[in-house]
Amino acid sequence: MTDLRPGVPANVAAALERALAKVPGDRFASCREFAAALADDMVLSPPAVAAAATVPTVAMRRPGPNALVRNAALIVLALAIGTFGTRALLALRAPSEVHSLAVLPLENLSGDESQQYFADGMTEELTAALSQITALRVISRTSVMGYQGTRKRLPQIARELNVDAVVEGAVRRQGDQVLVTAQLLDARQDRHLWGERYERRIADVLSLQGEIARVIAREVRVRLRPEERARLARARTVPPEAHEAYLRGRYLFGRMSESNFRDALNYFETAVRLDSTYAEAWSGIADAWYGMSSLYVPALEAMPRVQRAAARALALDPELASAHGSMATYLSCYAWNWSTGEAEYRRALALDPNNAWTHVTYATMLGAQRRFAESQAEWDKAIELDPLSLFSVVGAAQVALLRGDYPSAIRQYRSAIARDSTYAPARYMLGLTYLESARTSEALAELRKAVALADNLYAKALLGVALAQSGRKAEALAVAAELRAGNHGNVQPAYLAAIYAALGGNSEALDLLEESFNRRDEELINLAAYPQWRPLYSDPRFARLLKRLGLPLPPGVVAVDKT
Q: Which CATH number among 3.40.630.30, 3.40.50.10610, 3.40.50.10890, 3.20.20.10 corresponds to the domain 100-237?
């Protein structure tokens, strides 16, 4: 100890060395004896002794042998000299270099499975609070939820997520009270760094997330910016019923399906009925409508609702990053106001640099603008924050496809399939890449597998394109007919347009794209970047459409006729 901290009192160093002795007989015979050795040069006051009863108890992952010895010493010291002594001991350690962390799923200690949404919601809110700290890289919730109930050791989790530390803990609801235990661990060495136990009223639980985030920042010696400290210190009070409805909505929204989106929307709307000033719930409404837009609800109906909900959230909380992200998506994907949309993306990321989804949507916008290098950088950041997300891996591979680097795209898609052979997006994007590489039979095989795995309209459209390019016109038209009948007739006309373009029916394809333009379908943002639209490059109508969308003209597109 004195090698690391020369200023440590000799009696403290000697007492700790004896307490950690390998041979049991060489250790202290009792806590009283240990306390006496530690107190040789300090006064142990009665309040300090009484504080021992308040030492936090934290649900802990099964530690390794060395961790058991260290934790035992900490517990003995805490019992002997109380909470002050525990913190004093922690201050004597060599500082840990923590630049990245993950909040593992908080354990539900209620004994009621129906309360799982509450524990998951608390996990998400704590992650969101920590994500606002620029100096920390915080892993996305979608990657960490895979560790729910895991028995993996911390060093393995640290390697898989590429983090220095993890936050673990548990939640228990009892009436109008919530008990939260949290601990910070050096994941590489399975070493306890900090722990605390909190008991709050349900009505006060929102402010707890910022409190824990500030403490963790202090423990890992991260310097908070003044604006970050101010955001984390803001005390928010929300009616418990509204907060509960919000958490239920978030729980369902993360399970991405039409029914879950609609149920989540109902819960978010319940939350704002109970508290019309609840900015996060308004942001949830924006998310739910965007989740349904163009897929289950026409964009003309859904996207204005996204805008109104996001605007309401920002009016209530101008620094709510998720609402800025929703507004950015509305401006880019629906209003085609690219410059203002980009400003909103940048604002969202300035407020929450660790939001993987915002990096994903920003990367998509940059790719649509043919700004491929910038798009790649955003996809790389998304993967760094959400390393277990195949969605981001497949998205990043699209940049290689759009650049025409087909061998690299194929390698990346195959790597994603090796991780999960049932992940349909990796297969249909691999199929499109094979098609562009003139490997038609392989393209058809992958696209058929993708369609068999998931009832995905985009995958079916690409299958129709592949059939058309291979000269199988009747089969391609059959796919087009199936698309028209699919999704309750709400298919984006642009999907059909891609098939007709591959068949050489430019006029029909452009008519369908004009229909999509009038509907403001989201697929239109891909017209300047994706290869299935290349057959239309020779038609000036296509260039005029790109100009109306505010998209750049790809190389080879016939310029707009000046007359």
A: 3.40.50.10610
